[in-house]
Structure formats: structure tokens, C-alpha cells
Amino acid sequence: MTVSRKSSSKLNRYIGTGLVLAILAGPAVAASFKSIMRSMGDNTTSAKAVLANFDSKAAEQILQRYAADAEAADALFANQSGPREKDLHARFKKMATIANSASQQAQDRASFRKAFVAVAAECKSCHTTYK
User: Fold this and answer.
1) Which of 19, 24, 28, 33 has the greatest count of CB atoms below 10 A from its CB?
2) CA dihedral 46, 61, 33, 48 (to 10 degrees)
């Protein structure tokens, strides 16, 4: 009987630990997503400043940050099976692709503006659908 209680106690501990992790992980994912969105918002502010005073290095960095943020957001939804999550996965993947390829082509104000408009259109499409 003592062995059974030890096994039962150990199992209860594992279940309890699993529940605590599940409860803590949900808000962590949401907080992580919020921080990614906040980073994208800050990046948009920086992009507008670069449009006003063009700097090719800063333009490249902004597009690379968009790509990195989109890849991070994509990773949050990559293994999810709900229709909304699948849609977000596809949207962030597309945004990362656009920003990655554009970061190599933003050599002047006009090309950066074109790239920024493409990335911002992806942002707007998501906000229109989910906000």
C-alpha cells in the first residue's frame, strides 16, 4: 500500500505541475504575441522616420526587424490547427517572406517606400480581419 501511495502522490505532483505550466503558458504566449505586435508598431514608427530622412542601412534594418518579428509570430501559430491560427500562420509567413526579400532591395527612398507599403499592407489586412 505504501508503494501505491507514493506512486499516486508522484502522479498527482506531475499532474499538478502540468496544470500549473498550462495555466502559466497561455498568458506567456499572449504576452509574447503582444510584445511582437508592439515591436512591429515601434518598427512602423521607425520606418516612417526613415521615409522622411532616408538611410539605406536603417531601411534594411527595419525590414529585417519586420521579417524577424513576423517569423517569431509565425512560430507561435505554426503548429496550431484552428482555422484562425492557420490563417495567422499563413499571413505571418507571407509577411516574413516579403520583408526578407525587400530588405535586400531597399537601396533608395522609392524602393524602401514600395517595400514598406507591401509590408504595411500585410499588417493592415490582418488588423482589418482580426481587430
Assistant:
1) 33
2) 20
